[in-house]
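Worked example 2:
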Amino acid sequence: MFTIGDTVNTLCAIFEKHRNERVFVLGTTCVGKTALLEYFPDGVDMDAIAFQNITAEESEIISRQPWTKEIGDTVDKIVYRNVKVAPGKPVFGTVIVDCDAVVYLDISDERLAEHCKSRSVDFQDAFNMKKAIEKDFENHKSLGGKIFYYVAMAE
């Protein structure tokens, strides 16, 4: 488990090691991606670029509650179409796109529940997203071709 400072230092080391490669930082909602982005001025929030040019139908689907596989599949389609990772500009998000290295930010279910409560986010939605992300992470690992890192978030 890492403190935020440890996590920042770990990410700095990963980003430096892969400074000429495309790095994607992966995690569920409420894991702390946005907070971490404050430490990395060259970092990119996936959501800031993924959802700029979407159709009305896509917008309607991804706005539904609770989170479902259909929503996840629609988000995946949008992200694959709109998000590109550039060397030296790590992208922080929820869907693995074409990249050279992936950093998975894990969070315990208890800590995730605390983060969701403090942000007024539905825990079940965040939990379902976390499980889908973990499955995607494992699928990408089994395919190879990328370097994978695992970081357990403590804060």
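The helical segments are 4-17, 33-37, 46-50, 56-62, 69-82, 109-119, 123-143. The chain has one domain: 4-153.
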